[in-house]
Prior knowledge:
The longest helix has about 80 residues, at about 60-140. It contains two helices and three strands, in the order H-E-E-E-H. Helix 1 (about 5-15) packs across helix 2. The protein is rod-shaped and about 105 Å long. A three-stranded antiparallel β-sheet has the order 1-2-3, covered by helices on one side. The protein has about 140 residues and is α+β, with helices and mostly antiparallel strands. The chain has a domain at about 5-95.
Amino acid sequence: MQPANKLLTLGLLIFMGTELTQVLPANPEDSWQVYSSAQDSEGRCVCTVVAPQQSMCSRDARTKQLRQLLEKVQNMTQSIQVLDQRTQRDLQYVEKMEVQLRGLETKFRQVEENHKQNIAKQYKVSKMIAPVNSLSFSCLQG
């Protein structure tokens, strides 16, 4: 697998909600150590990052690349965490606005219903007044 593909794969694993956990080497004499591993939602290991011991090859180009890669992954993780916090905050705002809009819709329906009732009452009153007006007009003529 190419280094760019490895970075992309690792980045995608982090983005999908996996957690990277630091693991100390089991035996300090070993030349390689498990630096971190990613797990899926069921706890299965889906990715393991292996790095040379820090005492070994510290000037090696691969070690420098590995450190740079680790920094990029950490920066990406921090960016994802910030985005997650913003998303949570925005979601809470939207949910609060949704509740307020429902309340406004209820009030609007009440106002609309009251308006319909008032129109019906006015129509009823005007029908009652119309015969009275015609009676008084006919009484005046007669």
